[in-house]
Amino acid sequence: MNDVLAPDDFIRDLVARIEARRTFGGHPLWLALADGKLDGEQLKLFAIQFFLQVREFPRAVSAMHANCPFPEERMELAENVYEEETGRISGCNQPHPELFIRFGEAVGLTRTELVEGRPLPATRALIDWFELSTKQRSFIEAAAAINLAAEGQVPGAFGPMARRLQHNYGLSREAVEFWDIHEMADADHSDVGDHIVVRHATDAAMQSRVRDALQHSLDAWWQFFDGIQASI
Fold this sequence. Notes:
Strand content: under 5%
Radius of gyration: 17 Å
Helix content: over 70%
Order of helices and strands: HHHHHHHHHHHH
Number of helices: 12
């Protein structure tokens, strides 16, 4: 695709690419988790690997903020970082990684087991992609990789997952707060990505680079889940 797309057509193209994969909602591991098919040890392995990327995600958003040349978007990203690191905008008043530690402890892990977990190769590759996409690629590409391809898949996936975790694994509402908070917060964060990409990817070359970053991110997330599934 060598022609530049109008803004509305371009965002529809990107959304269609995301929905074609639905990494969170369509992966067999995600479906097995939602259906209560993971035993205790498998659930722990999933939680450790998921925590390792959760812990690094705020740094990716912070790198985006530092690399953002646009004042209005930089202010919105500053709010995003503040929420990730404090939870004070959503009202949970906990850093998002701390919310996930609460979930991990609820499924039988200790804080030490989570914090000192060893990443699987695909988990390490995803974390490395966070850094590469936000520090070595342009800001617009990072917006596609982080806001659209990652946070853009959360709304509609994490809220239902929270209820399934409660129902199938006997977890409390407090234990699954990480999933509920992200259902709300990431709708706003991914809207920032839509705005950035539509406003600033205005030539064919940049649109092509955005598609490449988006696809790389989708692939990295899918492989992340593949890696966990192969280990359980």
